[in-house]
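FAQ

Q: What does a record look like?
A: Structure on top, sequence underneath. For example:
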């Protein structure tokens, strides 16, 4: 039997069937579990949930320890479905306030069942990551448009986006990040927001942050540049290239963003992370010139993730730096970043992140298309160019961890040295071609 009870009445031995309230109100990604440990019990009782639904057929009833098991609890009400006029179900067991998003957005999310975070190969997760990116882009596009109109950013509208990205990163930590690195999109501002959100979640997982902190990290990634929409400039006139905006004007976007987010009920930790994403460890950043640990954890994380994506991003007018080169350059920016954050990002993305061009000992040029969880220096690469003949060759996948030393990476490579003039298009083609084998977890990479 299902019963709806107050969080303060939850006890050990109960089977939690549903957590009712915003998913930011509790630290659990799973909605159904048997409550068996005190730390979880404490977190659940102290959460901001509206109510908890328990299944008495699978666990303890309310007050089971101090009254006969068959005696009903007068304070517990039968658990029916939540009132549609108040709340609607969002992905991964969260709840989305009906007033926060359009009916179409809610309907799209209600069709999804993203609660599963079981590991998948990059090939299998890639197609799902593409669908997540497209849905998320539409929501973020709406958020940016509403921000330009002076409307507050509602947490309920962006929470499901974080939830979807989190689920994808859980299933495979490289599929969504690789997609953001290799798939071109004319709406660069939206792509940047999604990319930094995924990087923040990946970095947070590497740092072993609690679920609540991971969600907040994802929100910082989505919303860190929201203030750009209120800058006193014509964004259309610069064609979306923020580098063409006067730096003195551009600096104002962090304060404008913090003011905008504060009006929408966004958590203080998220607002502070957005405000501080241009602060530097050595105190040379803005807006406050903070030093070291005076910068919040989310702020230090955002500084690393935002810079990485800015440097590596291909947009409609320029080609970003090679991801491996970006890592090397950021490592030399003494004083800009928290060294621990940068090292954790490298550990999360790999020494040669997906999309990196590398030269192989065999004389072939290749692109990194997947990571090896056991050894970041031995990723899976796709060879596509032979330096001996100076010509393109049929793409061949090589799992460097399985080729028994017959080939290896000798270093990063430059596309222009091989006469490749449209690297973004080539990178997208090489990476997206993985979808041909989607739906199979069988090894695809050749051993040599």
């Amino acid at each position: 039997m299902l019963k709806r009870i107050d969080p303060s009445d939850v006890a050990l031995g109960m089977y939690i069937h549903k957590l009712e309230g915003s998913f930011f109100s509790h630290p659990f990604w799973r909605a159904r579990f048997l409550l068996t440990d005190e730390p979880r019990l404490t977190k659940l009782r102290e959460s901001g949930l509206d109510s908890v639904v328990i299944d008495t057929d699978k666990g303890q009833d309310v007050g089971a320890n101090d009254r006969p098991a068959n005696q009903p609890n007068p304070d517990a009400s039968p658990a029916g479905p939540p009132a549609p006029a108040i709340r609607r179900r969002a992905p991964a067991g969260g709840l989305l306030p009906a007033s926060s998003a359009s009916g179409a957005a809610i309907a799209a999310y209600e069709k999804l069942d993203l609660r599963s975070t079981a590991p998948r190969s990059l090939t299998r997760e890639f197609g799902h990551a593409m669908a997540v990116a497209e849905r998320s882009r539409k929501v973020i596009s709406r958020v940016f448009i509403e921000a330009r109109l002076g409307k507050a950013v509602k947490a309920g509208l962006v929470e499901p986006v974080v939830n979807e990205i989190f689920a994808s990163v859980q299933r495979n930590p490289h599929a969504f990040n690789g997609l953001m690195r290799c798939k071109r999109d004319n709406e660069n501002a939206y792509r940047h927001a999604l990319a930094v959100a995924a990087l923040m979640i990946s970095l947070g997982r590497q740092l072993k942050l609690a679920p609540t902190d991971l969600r907040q990290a994802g929100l910082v990634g989505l919303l860190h540049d929201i203030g750009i929409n209120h800058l006193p400039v014509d964004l259309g006139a610069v064609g979306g290239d923020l580098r063409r905006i006067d730096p003195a004007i551009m600096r104002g976007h962090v304060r404008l963003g913090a003011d905008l987010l504060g009006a929408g009920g966004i958590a203080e930790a998220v607002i502070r992370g957005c405000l501080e994403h241009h602060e530097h460890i050595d105190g040379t950043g803005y807006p406050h010139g903070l030093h070291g640990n005076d910068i919040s954890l989310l702020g230090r994380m955002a500084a690393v993730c935002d810079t990485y994506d800015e440097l590596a991003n291909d947009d409609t007018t320029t080609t970003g730096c090679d991801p491996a080169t970006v890592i090397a350059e950021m490592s030399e920016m003494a004083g800009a970043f928290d060294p621990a954050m940068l090292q954790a990002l490298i550990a999360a993305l790999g020494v040669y992140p997906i999309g990196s061009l590398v030269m192989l000992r065999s004389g072939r040029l290749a692109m990194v298309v997947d990571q090896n969880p056991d050894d970041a220096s031995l990723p899976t690469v796709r060879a596509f160019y032979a330096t001996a003949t100076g010509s393109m060759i049929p793409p061949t996948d090589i799992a460097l961890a399985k080729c028994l030393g017959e080939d290896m990476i000798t270093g990063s490579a430059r596309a222009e040295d091989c006469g490749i003039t449209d690297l973004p298009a080539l990178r997208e083609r090489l990476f997206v071609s993985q979808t041909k084998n989607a739906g199979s977890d069988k090894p695809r990479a050749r051993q040599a």
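Q: Is there anything notable about this one?
A: The longest strand covers residues 391-399.
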